[in-house]
Predict the 3D structure of the following.
Amino acid sequence: MAKIGVFICHCGENIGAKIDCNKLAATIGEHPGVAVSVEYKYFCADPGQESIKKAIRDNNLTGVVVAACSPRMHEATFRKACAEAGLNPYMCEIANIREHCSWVHTDPDMATEKAADITRSMIEKVKRNNKLQPIEVPVTRRALVIGGGIAGIQAALDIANAGQEVVLVEREPSLGGHMAQLSETFPTLDCSQCIMTPRMVEAAQHPKIRLLTYAEVVSVDGYIGNFHVKVKMKARYVDMESCTGCGDCITKCPQKKISSEFDCGIGKRTAIYTPFAQSVPNKPVIDKATCTYFKNGKCKVCMRSCQINAINFDMQDEFIELEIGAIVVATGFQVQNNAVYGEYGYGKYPDVITGLQFERLASASGPTFGKILRPSDGKEPKTIVFIQCAGSRDPSKGVRYCSKICCMYTAKHAMLYAHKVHEGKSHIFYMDIRAAGKGYDEFTRRAIEEDEASYVRGRVSKVWPKMSKLMVRGVDTLLGKPVLIAADMVVLATAMVPQPDAKEFAKTIGIAYDEYGFFNEAHLKLRPVESSTAGIFLAGTCQSPKDIPDSVSQASASASKVLALFSKQTLEREPVVASNNEATCAGCWGCVLACPYNAIEKKDILDRSGKLIKRVASVNPGLCQGCGTCVTFCRSNSLDLAGFTEKQIFAEVMGL
Amino acid sequence: MVIGYKPGTTADRRRPHFIRTPEEADQLVLDSACITNLSGYLVSEGLLSDEKAVAIFLKPDGIRSINILAAEAQLNIDQILILGFDINDNQVTALEGEKVEEFATLIESIKEQAPDALKNPLLEKIEGMTPKERFTFWQKEFSRCIKCYACRQACPMCYCRRCIVDCNQPQWVNTSSHTLGNFEWNIVRAFHLSGRCVGCGNCDRACPVNIPLRLINAKMAQEVLGSFDHFAGMSHTQEPVLASFKKDDSETFIL
């Protein structure tokens, strides 16, 4: 015999102002099987929860219905309260009389009537609820970090230093990412490589970190605690084991004019190369697209120059499979292609460069060894115009968002320029100076006051060459006057955009992304480092534009989430999963296709002698997310979802 | 075994003929009255379980049914030998090919003609009605339904071991012959056949009270063809339209 307790919440004025809760309690009290029907101002508050617990104990309730707000708000709260009173938590259901009733209706009498219907419907459901038990799934204590920039390295180190295994995958030949390309970093002007390379070495040498460079994640299957990951190890054509990194092959390579990705096209590299001198691992790869041997079938100069025969042109891409418990995605960003701004002449005039190219010019390890020189003629520029928001905050040609770091790095560029070329003059066109952060506003003030950067509030309309100069026409909106500057160089504060393959990659690993291709967090404010998929976390600029301190903080936050997951041998999952009636399953495999989580497998039913009787669908409860897609597809109604069984739903509908 | 046709109870009726011995082949008939889609017999319990091949007389619609049944893992196409034929102006012509894949070009051409072939004067009349008139029309048609489930028994696609109407815990489909139950049964059937019906007409002919069942299925076939470019039975690896999705599926019904 059912003994259902119904608890009707006023939610302050939210429900109470529209619905007559006393009348509702009286009406519901007469429904068959209802043992207790009471109302209260706030059942979610401590005294409210205590009264539910007391009612369960005093009346030996078999089920509880809380008529209140959406189950998304407080289902967990009330189920926990029921469990504390000794009732199986899945015997508690929420009748949503706030979002579904009081908030959307105006007539109090009709709203009260509807609230009674909703509540009765849930009472009928709860009578047919089953005492479900949480599912325990084992956790593989090994993390995968995708991306070897500062965020990925930080996350890997934090996890590894806590004693857990990490696999760090980087698709370029070396760790480092964008931070390794930078000259100095704001707001302290410490040398980027000097703080970055020790971290790279630490990650490479850490006994708990398995480093896979020149490798890409090609597939992710499974679920939290139990991911199966396939990684493609791109052929390096250099044996990692025997190569000593002496660099003889690099000096001998006849292809010397290949545009260097690391130097953003300003410097050159060879076909067999390491991206930069401090690469980790410091062992070269052969770029198949530009190598003479791969193009013409002749050369092999590098092979002959190698004294230990580490070069092997027959090397093939290899695939390795990994068992992983949690994933940190730290795949970083790219800079927008500024060629979309024809008026700035990027790509047309060699002395119009991006901020990242300026970083390479200013870097001591860069193509000019830290001297600021024009790409066109190698002369020192006496006047530089910096254009902020070259792409950011521009819905027409660029991106709508603010790239967040450009105000800071442009101020830094002006400062570095002032320190390197004392008589140099810098003009900065800006929309707003956004310098929120520790020491950031002080930094931009220093650029203006001590290093004499001239800030012009306004946009640039055109850049064109005249003699050896670049004429920059803009407007000073504070003076309301047009401005014309003859510059030697123009630096565009280019927008930060997602990796070009970010959306495809998000689909590969199964996480959500926004309209631009930045990966979505589970909750912008309260769960900023979790992705929408359990067990996959985000770090750094793959989520949104960020500076180094923010990327590092988020990486450490992700690492702490991973470590929390790894703190137990098993993890508990909601038992709301589908199951199949093997007797009636026709084996059409519609559910297998329909399942968005690949949770349904084909299972052979054998007789005692091992002969195949039939093949049926079988739901893996570890993978099932309880979405119910398979249930709606199954023509023979063989599939059913625990917690939302056909019987429960039918009773719910009939209760209306 | 060979599955074909033999004379039926009246001169213009044919019944299925299951031939196990050479002598039984003498009764075989093939003429313009052989319109039943025989493919459903292949999935009757155990017929193919000995893993031996079966030859079967099939019109193009029946060949498409073989593709769907194979795509839904109900049969192995290696076991099926097709004796294809078509009927035009009461003349029977043989079709080239034995294996289901060999009929791909034929099915492709049927798909191209489908938008016109699926048109029907009565269907167009119904589409011209207001929703209320349409409801009244179908209410009247369905009012004759006696829930004999002959349509289900005749349909090659209704191979479930337990049909949803035989499920009584809970009883989603009301078995009584009232408006509610009549609509429930026929709408459920229409959904279960959408993207799967080849329009063979087995259901239509089986119905003892002459409900124009084929119209409902033709309408669903038009819908899936128009919305998802899905034509039932194109190949034995075709994915079911309601369980698969493409990134460029049109979203006319979701905001």
User: Anything to note?
Assistant: Residues 121-228 of chain B form one domain. Strands of chain B lie at 2-7, 14-19, 54-58, 80-88, 91-94. The mean pLDDT of chain B is 91. The helical segments of chain B are 60-71, 104-117, 121-127, 131-142, 150-154, 179-193, 202-206, 213-228.
